[in-house]
Specification:
heterotrimer, A alpha/beta (316), B alpha/beta (380), C alpha/beta (323), B: 380 residues, C: alpha/beta, Rossmann fold, 5-stranded parallel sheet, two-stranded antiparallel ribbon
Amino acid sequence: MPRNLTYREALNEALAQEMERDPSVIVMGEDNAGGEGAPGEDDAWGGVLGVTKGLYHKFATAGLRPVAELMFVDFMGVCFDQIFNQAAKFRYMFGGKAVTPVVIRTMYGAGLRAAAQHSQALYPVFTHIPGLKVVVPATPYDAKGLLIAAIRDNDPVIFFEHKALYDLTGPVPEESYTLPFGEANVVREGSDVTIVTLGRMVHTSLAAADELAASGVSCEVVDLRTTSPLDEDTILESVENTGRLVVVDEATPRCSIATDISALAASRAFGALRAPIGMVTAPHTPVPFSAALEDQYIPDAQRIVNAVKPVAEWRR
Amino acid sequence: MTDSGITSVAMPKWGLSMRSGKITDWVVAEGDPVAPGDDLADIETEKITGTLEADSPGLVRRLIATVGEDVPVGAAIALIAPPDVPDAVLDDLAARARAVIDAGLPEDDGAGPVVETVEAGGRKVSYAGAGDSGDVVLLVHGYGGDRNSWLFLQEPLAARHRVYALDLPGHGTSAKDVGDGSVDLLADAVLGVLDAVGSDRAHLVGHSLGGAVVLAAAARSPGRIASLTLFAPAGFGPSISAGYVRGFAAAQTRRELKPLVGQLFADEQLVTRQVVDDLLAYKRLDGVDAALAALAETLLDGDEQRIDSAAAVRALGEVVPVTVVWGSADRIIPAEQASSVAAVAPGAAVRVIDGAGHMPHMERPAEAQAAVEETIARAG
Amino acid sequence: MADTLTKDQLLTAYRTMRTIREFEERVHKEFATGEIPGFVHLYAGEEASAAGVCLNLDERDTIASTHRGHGHCIAKGVDVGGMMAEIYGRTTGSCHGKGGSMHIADLSKGMLGANGIVGGGPPLICGTALAAKLKGTGGVSVAFFGDGGSNQGTTLESMNLASVWNLPAIFVAENNGYAESTASTWSVATDNIADRAGAFGMPGVIVDGFDFFAVHEAAREAVARAREGGGPTLIEMKFTRYFGHFEGDQQTYRAQEVAHARAELDCLTRFAAQVTADGSLSAADLAAVDGAVAILIDKAVAEAKAAPLPAPADLLTDVYVRY
């Protein structure tokens, strides 16, 4: 059994091992080293939530496969042109003659009372852009393998880390390894209802699945891992087996991953579906500050259970 | 069996790191008679599923653990006793056993198996040991496996021997660089571990490619080897499933890997999602696929076996006890090659296990264990 | 000034400017026939800026451009035939017809692309300048942008970043008086774009954009500063574009300065006058270049018109290296 690391430590290890292996990998971002230029503050931070801590001291030189940090994905507005009009499109616009191997790591997600401009789950926006790849790991094992894969990938990758997952622990091999993009992970097998989900919602969905199992509903939980590319085959195969689908997505509902997966299943697995597709998402609102409201905003296990039961029971 | 004739059937320890298991199906019911070797229950662990067999005769009087619950290793899950043992006695024992299960898993004291490493031939080789007395036994897995392949054997053998299992180069947590991928390079690892544990007389057990490796190690250092137990060893005939060997190295997804892994077993149900996931995670480590590709070319010459183990076993078979064990339903290396072994080493014992596939040490662990013990005993 | 440049350099300068001029004049003509798809934004009138700056650059150096990018492309050595085919949307174009006029690029020549986003270039050259600095190539990176682009947040951020990171970068503001139809006198808060340089910790210089030699000298200094680790410079060219913001622009917003500029200020006319006056080049030298360029442009247009369009399958290619 490999040793346990936190999600944060798994990311740090991925960065360190890749920088060790390939001097052209560089890390960039505000406060990633520490308080640059402020005496006595060197490496104090390692990024706002500590992901890059210690790297500055190990890797002073650099090269050009940047792993840039977009601290909170909510800040995308101030640099979005560079991401979606420039980096995403160089290869296509320049007739295949450009390679843009950049990774943009970014934090997403609600639950820390960080309020509307520090809590969004904006991966649908990036998923929508041809030329970008979008990765949303749910576990420390997935985080390290997908980040190493992202660094070695020659396309622009937006790498989404849920802020509430940084302290999650799990087994992580010491050696370097990669996970492929476009491969979803069936984290729980089941026969009655397929739950497709991603990121932090994987854990919430598993908790809901436990509760549902106690009342006799067997859920299969599919963790997308990457939304672009998307593992359509695994999703469709699961829906073909269960005939019932609920998508759980922390993002707001319009033009979200929930709607995207629902449309996929409705158009490609229509014959297998035995119930309407259910979606559990945040409401169409900004993220509220007050704890009482934010806890309502984020889908929890009970909401998932309440959404799955009618889908499981639905009969013509 | 206690003096009163009651046998307490415990959750077995399969593998050095197993801490608990779940019964997925009781094969027997209360009141059934059982004989040694009869299936009692299907058990699922983090690593694998297997079937627990009875090792003594009697009547199944109480089933204590229920299907689906986590049971700590060593906790009693059933009671087998003759019909004349009073119910009150059994109820009392069962209640106490039930309380042990209900108390849940003890705190992980972190005292899992200690994994050691040794530098052999300039490569880091991992190994883990169990048992603190008796002869040294070294278990060597096959292509694409690791030291956990022996999870059904290592603990039981450790009752009477010092039992080590290593990860060959390119596998497990050993260094992934396999150099020229030759059998001799792999044999360096075997000899290196024997050095590390201070053994000058060891029983070697090898599976498939590991069988050829232990033979090569023994041929280089015959004075150090007390006996050889070979499970479906490579190098005794031209036939081999080249499709399996190359396919395993090339597979990139679960979809590609699952059917290949299924070919290893006579009963494909043994291939759980966890088994495939663990293999996929192994293959995704840096350097593994390159190592497997190199080893595939060690195993194969076109579509036939490249290794020739005959000379080694001929030389050794006159000096040390050799047993070869083969599953009759082996789809990777056909079981008839067992007779080729016997042909070149007339003193070798041959055991064909009816209905087992290429992994008899996982599919029929009781018989596999018996074969190893018997070979060790012949060594005197 | 003419005597600090060799005859070869002078011929190169003239050929660059003449090629740009004839290319743009021809595209202007051809666009009016309706055969060229989309938008084109012509650089005619501004040739001295592209030529004067780029003559100071070599293969280590990169430039980023604007929607008005043909001049920069030509000055940096992008193949003229490929450019014309790209403008016509042909598969033989610099970008296989996938980019068009506003996205012509040739990374092998350090040309990071024309850019459809105002202010899109400066952040890019901060990246290439950082790479050059970290790799120790001695290369410099130049961002060309307009008076409209000089107001973009991305441009201002890039200047600040280039300063604090001491990057080998050069910011060239090509002030032709208009951002689309908005006069720069209205939209730029300072009298000169170059006045902003001090606010970003770098030197600023104003140059007559019609004067090749003035441009060349200002750029030479900025390039030397950048190569020697002295950090970025802001150069402001003042001149006029001869055509509209885009082809089809009725230019009702303009003062009548184009006729005057063509007659009295034109960079090619002035260059020719100066080099023939001091004997650096002869009229015959210049005429030879004129003739060669005419043939080059004719050939480019003929080949572009005859070249195949991309195949339907090309729609889906090169979104990713590997998906």
